[in-house]
Amino acid sequence: MEMTFRWYGANEEKIKLSEIRQIPGMKGIVGTLMDIPAGEVWPKDRIKALKEEIEANGMTLKVIESVNIHDDIKIGLPTRDQYIENYKQTIRNLAEFGIEVICYNFMPVFDWVKSDLDYKLADGSSTLAYIAKDIPEDPEEIIKKVEGSSNDFELPGWEPERLAQVKQLFEAYKDVDEAKLRENFAYFLKAIIPTCEEVGIKMAVHPDDPPYSIFGLPRVVKNRDDLDWICNVVDSPSNGITLCTGSIAERPDNDVYEILAEFCKRDRIPFAHVRNIKYINDNGLDFYEAPHKSEYGSLDMYKVLKAMYDNGFDGYIRPDHGRMIWGETGRPGYGLYDRALGAVYLNGLWEALEKADKK
Ligand code: DNO
Q1: CB of 112 closer than 6 A to ligand 1?
Q2: Is 165 domain-assigned?
Q3: Does the keyword Ligase apply (predicted)?
Q4: Residue 289 counted as domain residue
Q5: Domain that residue 72 falls in
């Protein structure tokens, strides 16, 4: 297991690499080139510069989150083949600089959706939350709401230029149901996985967040059976999952521990996002993102890590979203302090698991 921290790049961040390196046990950065639009090839010089900047700060760059997938690929338009070729070139370019894992998602239109980016907790901190009744029916309203509470940071997967066209995007997806989205997903994986195998990259799909249909859009990465379908449609170690405990658990009928155990055993989890969520309002939908420590949320973090440890997890892990604490302001979910606490806590649990095992 190697602990990592998501960082958006010097031009996009308040948080410095020199601060991240001071988190005990922090080994690597989960990096990105946020300004490159989906569909374009990531230039080698930019990847090289990012890697060097991170290494100069004593950490490694092995995981990229995300190389986003152009909507034409998800919709299945004839233009997809060129975008797939570009994606393959990006894979080759990243491999040349030692990248091992690419995290991505296959969600139409929106990446993650939450109703609140500044949900107040009793201890005075604030966090992200999903309250179903507060999700507006009109997707344009959610865009306004999210952009209005982003503290002026661009949010991952919420590129303003792309979402400015949201009506056209919805129109373009109107004939894409689950079966069609799955077909387009299979087409994409069949095209790119051979390149990944050739250059030693593992693709790791992020679960849908939330893992059920929203705004009438189809969803294909929601539960155990979807993950099984993905792993089988191109049966290769290069075709894996970013197991996000929070997203998977947002559907209470998903057994996070079982899913982790199964896919770690199958060696299909090269990367994990670990966070805790707290179910509220008893409707099976509403939750807020709790501090990582088990007692604050609905997930048992010891059981989460034990399911991974016992089933041979040897990939990269990162503390997922943190709250805003100690007066910090920043990109919602991605402050420094609470994620640092999460990382140290997860490292502590892992050390205990290792030592108990070796006794
Ligand atoms: C949210 C993240 C997602 C994730 C993408 C992967 O905070 O977990 O935006 O990076 O879904 O492509």
Answers
A1: yes
A2: yes
A3: no
A4: no
A5: 2-109+160-275+299-320+331-358
Is 111 close to ligand 1, i.e. is its CB under 6 Å away? yes
Known catalytic residue: 206?
yes
What residues have CB less than 8 Å from 81, skipping those under 6 apart? Answer: none
Q: Is residue 124 in a domain?
A: no
pTM (whole model) above 0.85: yes
CATH of residue 351: 3.20.20.150
Distance 1 CA to ligand 1 centre (A): 20
CB 99 within 8 A of CB 63: yes
124-134 pLDDT tens trace = 999 999 999 99
DSSP H helices in 120-177: 139-148, 160-163, 166-172
Pocket test for ligand 1, best of 70, 111, 244, 317 (most atoms within 8 A of CB): 111
Looking at every residue in the chain, the average pLDDT score rounds to: 96
**What is the three-class DSSP state of 259?**
helix
For the stretch 309-347, pLDDT in tens is: 999 999 999 999 999 999 999 999 999 999 999 999 999
Q: Number of structural domains, the chain?
A: 1
231's tokens? 């792993």
Pocket probe mutation, ligand 1, options 65, 74, 155, 247, max atoms within 8 Å of Cβ: 65
* pLDDT tens by residue, 173-189: 999 999 999 999 999 99
Which of 36, 105, 244 should be mutated for ligand 1, with most atoms under 8 A from CB? 105
Q: Regarding beta strands 271-274 and 276-279, do their DSSP bridges make them parallel or antiparallel, or are they unpaired?
A: unpaired
Q: How far is the CA of 303 from the centre of ligand 1 (A)?
A: 23
Q: What is the percentage of the chain residues whose pLDDT exceeds 90?
A: 94
Which pair of tokens denotes residue 260? 């982790």
Would 286 be classed as within a structural domain? no
Which residue's CA is minimally distant from atom 1 of ligand 1?
Answer: 112
Calculate mean pLDDT across residues 302-315: 98
Q: Is the pLDDT of residue 161 over 90?
A: no
Name the residue with the closest Cα to ligand 1, atom 9.
Answer: 156
